[in-house]
Design brief:
alpha/beta; Rossmann fold; two-stranded antiparallel sheet; 9 strands; globular; flavoprotein; FMN; CE1759_FMN_reduct; NAD(P)H-dep_FMN_reductase; oxidoreductase
Amino acid sequence: MGAKKIVVISAGLGTPSSSRLLADQLADASVRRAAELGIETQVVVYELRDLAVDIANNFVTGYAAPKLADAIEAVEQADALIAVSPVFSASYSGLFKSFFDLLDNKALDSKPVLLGVTGGSERHSMVIDFAMRPLFSYLRARIMPTAVFAAPMDWGRGAEGEAALAGSLTSRIERAAAELASELTEAPAEASAPKIATRPEEKSFEELLFGLTGRN
């Protein structure tokens, strides 16, 4: 069995970006949790800000430039997806939505998806349930029960001044990552042909009618 491919989509616009920081933490935890289950993983990260012009051009021309086409194909072929967006106007960013609008409607069908959101305050956490989950439910993805929201107060500073995680955020990340890793252990269900009831002996309409009325 080859390595399971986890594709990470980050819609952060800044450098550095809190969305990218959260995406990296979710990916690292998912890899670690998968390894604990004996699952080898491969992670590929796409920052949508690098693809913004190509995404806009695709809507106008109907053509995906090579880098954008690679990102779309990677998402479609992924075994699992981690999707992180900042909050803009009480929802996910327009860039985030535009990228997923370019996917085939069946691209995420039954695909495990871990959701992450970053915002300026804890009040924005409602975006997860009122915007993110409905979008991926429409796309028929298997959404992890635990989604992770990170506000500025969830980030601290490490000994060297680098961004560090607060305890509660760490626990949410670990729980969400464990759920995603568990999904990677499950083999996709094989589609079975529907069972159709058939009569032992096919009869014509006239024969059936005679059986009911006793006359032709």
